[in-house]
Amino acid sequence: MIEARGVTKVYGAGTRAVAAVRDVSAAFEPGLLHCLWGPSGSGKTTLLHLLAGIDAPTSGGVFVDGEGIGTWDDARASAWRRRHVGFVFQFFNLLPALTARENAGLPLLLDGKDGREVRERAASALERVGLAGRADRRPAELSGGEMQRVAVARAIAADPAILLGDEPTGNLDTETGASVIGLLKGLAAEGRTVIVATHDTRIAEGAGRVLRLLDGAVASDEKRA
Ligand SMILES: Nc1ncnc2c1ncn2[C@@H]1O[C@H](COP(=O)(O)OP(=O)(O)OP(=O)(O)O)[C@@H](O)[C@H]1O
Ligand SMILES: [Mg+2]
Q1: Is 219 helix (H, G, I), strand (E, B) or coil?
Q2: Is residue 83 classed exposed, middle or buried when 0-12, 13-18 and 19+ CB atoms within 10 A define those classes?
Q3: What is the pLDDT of residues 168-181, one digit of tens each?
Q4: Which of 4, 56, 164, 221 has its CA 20 to 30 A from that of 210?
Q5: Using an 8 Å Cβ cutoff, are 150 and 175 in contact?
Q6: CATH of the domain at 206
Q7: Is residue 127 situated within a structural domain?
Q8: Are 18 and 45 in contact (CB under 8 A)?
């Protein structure tokens, strides 16, 4: 269980200070697809980064199974991220020199898994996103939607309990977007905690819970049947 308790993030100082996230408290549940919904600038990306421990809150904390991740040292935090958290970035963050398979397998490689296991798991993650035939291509040889799917494959390759996505369907056509949404729902149904920031109404409609953000604060938190 991952939980935000009174999380606030302020960027800048003095008159230029911006509270990107304001006093957000929410417990995110395994088995559920959560949607962070809100206009541009409402704090979705910032909140995802705080949940992943990529960024630290100004006040409040993020807790995993009751333990504050802010108390962990860098080594412990990055090991936790590599093993238990998959992150699909808004702008992919793929490494241009690596093939799709190498990009997808990178978190496993960094975690010390042997080459054969890395290749097999990366290949199966690529297959899951419909890119088995593109495994040997580099990002520059892929379409935007294909790069997005490689980013999804990388996020799921380590079989993480927590999957965070920042506009994971932002660059996909309707059909491919629908298949990624189906994949996210399936990953949640398998017992993962899936949290997705999006403007995509289809994700919001299919989500088990929608947290609406306005100016960094949770304006509504709605669970669906
Ligand atoms: N590094 C930063 N320094 C200063 N301000 C920032 C920084 N990152 C984000 N902000 C500000 O914090 C607020 C929230 O930004 P955030 O990126 O979380 O919004 P978002 O909901 O993800 O928007 P979008 O839908 O456009 O991706 C915005 O006002 C933004 O300008
Ligand atoms: Mg964003």
Answers
A1: strand
A2: middle
A3: 988 888 888 888 88
A4: 56
A5: no
A6: 3.40.50.300
A7: yes
A8: no
Q: Is 187 left (phi over 0), alpha (psi -120 to 50) or beta?
A: alpha
For the whole model, what pTM was predicted? Answer: 0.94
Is 62 part of any domain?
no
Q: Give residue 169's region: left, alpha or beta (phi > 0; psi -120 to 50).
A: alpha
Nearest bound ligand to CA 43?
1
Atom 4 in ligand 1: which residue has the minimum CA distance? 11
Q: How far is the CA of 84 from the centre of ligand 1 (A)?
A: 25
Coil, strand or helix: which one is 177?
Answer: helix
For residue 28, the CA-to-ligand 1 centroid distance in Å is 22
CB 151 within 8 A of CB 92: yes
In a domain, 123, yes or no: yes
β-sheet bridge partners, residue 9:
21
Taking the CA of residue 47 as reference, the ligand 1 atom at the shortest distance is: 18
Other C-beta atoms closer than 10 Å to the C-beta of 39 total 12
Backbone angles phi, psi at 210, to 5 degrees: -120, 120
By residue range, what is the domain housing residue 84?
28-57+73-223
Q: pLDDT tens, 28-77?
A: 999 999 999 999 999 999 999 999 999 999 999 999 999 999 999 999 99
Considering the domain boundaries, does residue 213 fall inside one? yes
Ligand 1 site residues (CB inside 6 A) read 11-12, 18, 20, 38, 40-46
Residue nearest to atom 16 of ligand 1 (CA): 43
